[in-house]
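# nightly structure sweep
# worker-07 picked up a monomer target from the shared queue
# config: single-sequence mode, recycle default, output format = structure tokens
# input follows
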Amino acid sequence: MKKWSLWFVLFVVPLYALDQLTKWIVCENLPKGRGVIVVPGFFDIIHVRNTGAAFGILQGIPVSWRTIFFLIVTIAACLAIVFILTRQGAEDVFLEAMFYLVIAGALGNLTDRLRFNEVVDFLNFHIGALSWPTFNMADTYISIAIIGIFIRAFVKGNKARSR
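# output follows
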């Protein structure tokens, strides 16, 4: 089995499934706009929908254009990642994991856009009145990946400069 397909089967598919499962549980158990307090004053699970991108940007675009836009962007991003991974010379399991996290997250949110024309969000962290925008597991994967890629670039950059 090729390395990328092993990554896909053992990493992307389970993460994608977890994202879709958690969204399904929320959709089945909480009406839109309703929530459950998990840790008072800090963490709630609340069923909200996001028609835009990160932090709600692009919400005003008509649904048909938005769907086409996100479909093209997601496919382009996944193809770019696969291209980068196939061209990658040295073995860097950490970096590969970060790129496959992006793919899992992108596919999870794209599935919602194709099914609902919006993304199901439900994780809400806050301290008093200060609240982080509500998000989901797919968003978490993408955020962790971006942070990981930046850390890897910073560490490799420092190693190269110290030589």
